[in-house]
Amino acid sequence: MRRTKAEAMETRCAILDAAEVTFFQNGVSRTTLAMIAEAAKVTRGAIYFHFANKNALFEAMLERGRLPQECFVQLDDLIGAADPLDRIRSNAVEALDFISTNARTQKILAIMLLRCEYVAEMEEMLVRLREADEEMLSVIRRAFQEAAQRGLMSGEWTAEAATTTLQCAMSGLITQWLRSGFGFDLVTTGRRMLQSLFESFRRTDES
Fold first, then answer.
1. Confidence at residue 158, expressed as pLDDT on a 0 to 100 scale
2. Which of the given ranges, 23-27, 59-63, 185-189, has the highest pLDDT on average?
3. Mapped to the 3 state alphabet, what secondary structure does 7-63 carry?
4. Chain centre to alpha carbon of residue 123
């Protein structure tokens, strides 16, 4: 019997749901398509109908979730903002708030950061993730450059250094929060961290 479009979409969603759970439980490298098929209660042929390989399935899983790159960077907000520094900080806090309340994003981030070795078949995915990161960072860098041009940045910071420091701070905070099993308030801790960091970025009478 020929499947309807709705049935095919339902199967695809079931496969992606199973992939999230299986990747999270076993790690990406130890997860096989057969394991995902069993969890989704479908055949491996059904998986291959929707996804060329495990890499394609992994990528589709990432695309279904909203990642920090997507909720952090809004070109209209960052570039041309009245106060670029305040807008960058606000967007970072908004990203943390979204992560702290979205279970799917939490699971996908845990898979990406804690349960995936980007080698062999996953090496291509690492390249794509780096490209997505660089797209995000290029926007942030431009916003810091704009802040510097307006005389808002401390002379002790370059746009490049500020961008890299912010990236490391956010990445480290999120990774530690996931490793600790949500052992601290991500948003409250993040707000304090970002407040101190952006105070150092901002020009004062002495800097």
1. 97
2. 185-189
3. HHHHHHHHHHHHHHHHHHHHCCCCCCHHHHHHHHCCCHHHHHHHCCCHHHHHHHHHH
4. 17
Distance CA 56, CA 103 (A): 22
Q: How far apart are CA 39 and CA 22, in angstroms?
A: 8
For the chain, what percentages of helix, strand and coil (3-state, to nearest 5) are there?
Answer: 75, 0, 25
Under DSSP, the state recorded for 183 is -
Domains of the chain: 5-63 (1.10.10.60), 65-201 (1.10.357.10)
* Per-residue CA distances from 135 to 51, 73, 75, 95, 181 (Å): 26, 9, 11, 16, 29
Mean pLDDT of 160-188: 96
State the pLDDT at residue 101: 92
Q: How far apart are CA 140 and CA 107, in angstroms?
A: 26
Rounded alpha-carbon distances, angstroms, from residue 97 to 120, 127, 167, 187: 34, 27, 17, 6
Token code pair at residue 68: 């920090």
Enter the tokens of residue 172: 């480290």
Residue 198, both tokens: 């952006």
- Name the token pair of 72: 């952090």
pLDDT of 67 above 90 = no
Residue position matching structure tokens 């080698």: 119
Of the pLDDT bands very low, low, confident and very high (cuts 50, 70, 90), residue 70 is low
